[in-house]
Specification:
Blueprint (H helix, E strand, L loop, with lengths): L2 H12 L15 E8 L2 E8 L5 H14 L2 E12 L13 E11 L11 H7 L4 E6 L12 E3 L3 E7 L4 E7 L20 H7 L19 H27 L1
Parallel strand pairs: 1-5
Antiparallel strand pairs: 1-2, 2-4, 3-4, 5-8, 6-7, 7-8
Length: 242
């Protein structure tokens, strides 16, 4: 995974996590980065805690099959989770991350992403995010908002990357069936704004450079997400004290 992608991942994290909301207390249980390049796609999955490595390998292997291909060069490791400077936290000190190459298969069509495989593989975690590291597509017609009472899916950034937040209210129950595309009559002003790629136009000038690539990048993004949550909590307390 090239250095430019690492820089982009830092920018993503510094923008915060709208999916968490102003009163959120925790980060999502998993962050999945998907970066297509030619006939192969890099997949990096970082979990908010340590998981058995066989379980993580099984998840990625299953994901590859559901996407119509196979995962190659699967690497799993436990890495130290960077702590937020100057703040005590109950967050785990280590996180499990994995990197793999998807060979064959497809992450979607030319104008939409296939989200169902990610829901099948990571839905038992309850909350997770998937980031498709691709440029904005003016013809994008994929899912932007879905909620059937069991599962909520939101597109919270459109292009560079396309960033989806998933919430599964009953992680042990059957999985919802997600549509590939958003029905036109269901689009709202908010989702149209998101799909228009406004978030993708935010500048990354002056952001710190990611030194760790691949698995390290996933852990670093998680650290920044945690920092943004802590900042929101501090701001909320300050507002309440006024």
């Amino acid at each position: 995974m090239e250095a430019a992608l690492g820089n982009l991942l830092t920018a993503i994290a510094l923008l915060g996590s709208p999916a968490l909301g102003a009163r959120a207390q925790t980060s999502p249980e998993a962050l999945v980065l998907v970066h297509p390049a030619g006939d192969m796609t890099t997949v990096v999955a970082t979990f908010h805690r340590t998981l058995p490595h066989d379980d993580v390998r099984g998840r990625l292997t299953r994901l590859g099959g559901l996407l119509g291909g196979r995962m190659d060069k699967v690497t799993v490791s436990d890495r130290s989770a960077p702590q937020t400077e100057g703040k005590r936290t109950s967050a785990p000190s280590q996180m499990t991350s994995a990197e793999a190459l998807l060979k064959g298969g497809s992450i979607g069509s030319s104008d939409a992403f296939n989200l169902q495989p990610f829901l099948e593989v990571f839905g038992d975690l309850g909350t997770f995010e998937v980031l498709f590291v691709v440029q904005p597509n003016p013809a994008f017609a994929g899912l932007t908002r879905y909620d059937d009472g069991k599962t909520s899916v939101r597109l919270i950034q459109a292009g560079s990357p396309y960033r989806y937040a998933f919430t599964v209210r009953d992680p042990s129950g059957p999985r919802s069936k997600l549509p590939l595309r958003q029905a036109a009559q269901e689009e709202t002003e908010e989702t149209q704004k998101s799909a228009g790629g406004s978030a993708a136009r935010r500048s990354t000038q002056g952001l710190p450079i990611v030194l760790g690539l691949g698995i390290g990048a996933g852990v670093l993004v998680y650290a920044w997400l945690r920092r943004r949550v802590n900042q929101r909590e501090g701001a909320g307390r300050g507002d309440n004290d006024r």
